[in-house]
Amino acid sequence: MSASELLVRQERLQADARAFLAAHQVERRLAQAGRVLPVGSYVTGLMVWRDLDLCVDARGLGRAKAWELVRPLLVHADRARYEHLEQPDDRRHYFVLQAEGWKLDLSLFTAGIPREVEVFQNELQRRLDDETRLAILRLKELWRLRPEYPEIVEALRSPRRFWRASVLRRSSK
């Protein structure tokens, strides 16, 4: 796939993502629990497939309320997965929905969105130049074609590893 095709597809996916979020009022629904923070490739301009990640600062949100909040989205889902995580540094209700060709990852953080999530997201956006964005899109496109993608390759960790390698490579010149 050419560079221009990757960039055009990425822009189209972002537009489709905005339309999906608006049609299902995803952010409005989630905002009932707290501040909504879209993250991942949708925000950074690194989309290669229909995958959306949203975090919610849902302090103190219980399991029953989390399900109640997400229920209107579940109606449209072909598949859904739920995990309740209670690790010292990762407390959240985690939903993964597949609906209308989209994978929607919802992290409802019950002790607040970890600071490093937003810091990493902002730093990546600040440091992404056109050359690096295109390199990451090409790499993600190769991964996307593999049968185990995206389950093996985590959206936030993959660009981070690539970015670190890129920075190390540039600094050694």
Description:
The two termini are 29 Å apart. The protein has a single domain, classed as 2-Layer Sandwich (Beta Polymerase, domain 2). With 173 residues, it is α+β, with helices and mostly antiparallel strands. Strands 1-2-5-4-3 form a 5-stranded mixed beta sheet, sandwiched between helices. The longest helix is centred in the first third of the chain and has 21 residues. It contains 7 helices and 5 strands. Helices cover 49% and strands 22% of the residues. A hairpin with a 2-residue loop joins strand 3 and strand 4. 25% of the residues are buried.
Write the layout of secondary structure elements.
Layout: H1 3-23, H2 26-30, E1 36-39, H3 41-44, E2 51-57, H4 63-74, E3 79-87, E4 90-99, E5 102-109, H5 115-127, H6 130-144, H7 157-171
Parallel strand pairs: 2-5
Antiparallel strand pairs: 1-2, 3-4, 4-5
Helix pairs in contact: 1-6
Tag the structure with descriptive keywords.
5 strands, single chain, alpha+beta, globular, 49% helix, Beta Polymerase, domain 2, 5-stranded mixed beta sheet, 173 residues
What is the strand content? 15-25%
Poorly predicted segments: 155-173
- Per CATH, the class reads Alpha Beta
Mean pLDDT: 88
Spatial ordering of strands, largest sheet: 1-2-5-4-3
| Major sheet attributes | 5 strands, mixed
The backbone outline, from C-alpha atoms, is globular
How helix-rich are the residues, as a percent range?
Answer: 40-55%
Span from first to last CA?
A: 29 Å
Q: What structural class is derived from the secondary structure elements? A: alpha+beta
Number of helices: 7
| Number of spatially distinct domains | 1
Rg value: 17 Å
In CATH terms, the superfamily is Beta Polymerase, domain 2
Order of helices and strands: HHEHEHEEEHHH
Strand runs, count: 5
CATH structural architecture: 2-Layer Sandwich
CATH topology: Beta Polymerase, domain 2
